[in-house]
């Protein structure tokens, strides 16, 4: 039985002193899980990430298995424009993590940006797929134990989306990582997730997707707008 | 005893260089807005220093610190944005300054007077300049990351409040030093123009910081020699040299 890496007990997050974004949420993540958080817009998914990363105040308990656990984070919708306003190269951006050039080249190669020209490019000048892969590499470069990916395929076409998810799976398997992923893509949930947490302010369901994602749960989560047919081959 | 010109030259060189370097981090609108008119906040203190004949640096520093404290206090008491409060306190500072400043001394306060630099000013500029340079060099990368994404910076262990405070204190000290050579009106230019020129010709962060520093320094040196030739006030000359470098940088633009 793998050890528990994260335990969340009665977590509540209130923003601006009144609006409850997350209410009384409890769940656990085991080491090495591919843990997916599912929920409609405004359900509190990104807020949950921020609380877990210690970026915002919260009530309740968030217990990591050890104190100095290393995180990698890919925030939602980080804009290439933030880079465009600066004279900064991909290499500069990676150097923020205090890693050797050798490691930088290696990780860039593994996310498909191995050509030398990418090192000197401004991240803002990459295509949206390349930009997102560059960020995944950045999240990975410090040898993190837990990775947080907040909708890593927003704004990317279907081909690019597949590349990104297969990259995540590759790293997950090779590096024995714990991955927490926010996505709307039910295909990925069924194909990848070891466990899923359905969130709509409170926890609606939690467990392996095949067991907990019943049509009823999905309806509670998204209203009756959504029907998912899983193809059996 | 070094000549008056040498004292002025050393002072201007250090201030120009470090201000340029600091300015390269003045990337966001908010920072530019706060850093820009900080000089105006110095006016009441500068006015009092001129009247009572004590060091302008001290007057400017006290006045800026007091202004910053008032902004911070108002922020805790009202729901107004920091930008609005900054505008309000700056305007009040300028108005108050002109109320107490004798018109005959207005020129020195507004555009500076390099001929009044004394050895203490030079020593202050060198020591504080070096300290600020090394402190900023240490936090430079983290400040840039903070600019790109506050969440990413926090995940990397950056204490946002502490870093912003260090940067603002450095700006405040630098403005207080600058007042002597370029006056309260032109302090912002020493931050903004070298960095803008460096932005045009750099593709990496290393180049950007270095070019900002060098352009700030070279403009100050050239401005001082032009002052020696023409006897026109050094402050405006230094800014005009900076502006000329900026225009040249447009044509050298990388990309």
Measured by DSSP, the beta-strand proportion of chain A falls in 25-35%
**Beta-strand residue fraction of chain B:** under 5%
Q: How many angstroms does the end-to-end distance of chain A come to?
A: 31 Å
Quick one: CATH class of the domain at 70-196 in chain A?
A: Alpha Beta
How are the strands of the largest sheet of chain A arranged?
5-6-7-3-8-9
The number of strands of chain A is 9
Give an overview of the whole structure.
The complex is a heterodimer of chains A (233) and B (255). Chain A has a domain of 127 residues: 3-Layer(aba) Sandwich (Rossmann fold), CATH 3.40.50. In chain A, helix 6 packs parallel to helix 7. In chain A, the strands form two sheets. Chain A has a six-stranded mixed β-sheet, with helices on both faces. A three-stranded antiparallel β-sheet of chain A has the order 2-1-4, with helices on one face. Chain A is 36% helix and 26% strand. Chain A contains ten helices and nine strands. Chain B has one domain: ABC transporter involved in vitamin B12 uptake, BtuC (Orthogonal Bundle). Helix content of chain B is 81%, strand content 0%. Chain B contains 13 helices and no strands. In chain B, helix 11 runs parallel beside helix 13 and helix 12 packs across helix 13. The longest helix of chain B has 30 residues. Chain B starts with a helix and ends with a helix. The interface between A and B is medium-sized, with 23 and 23 residues.
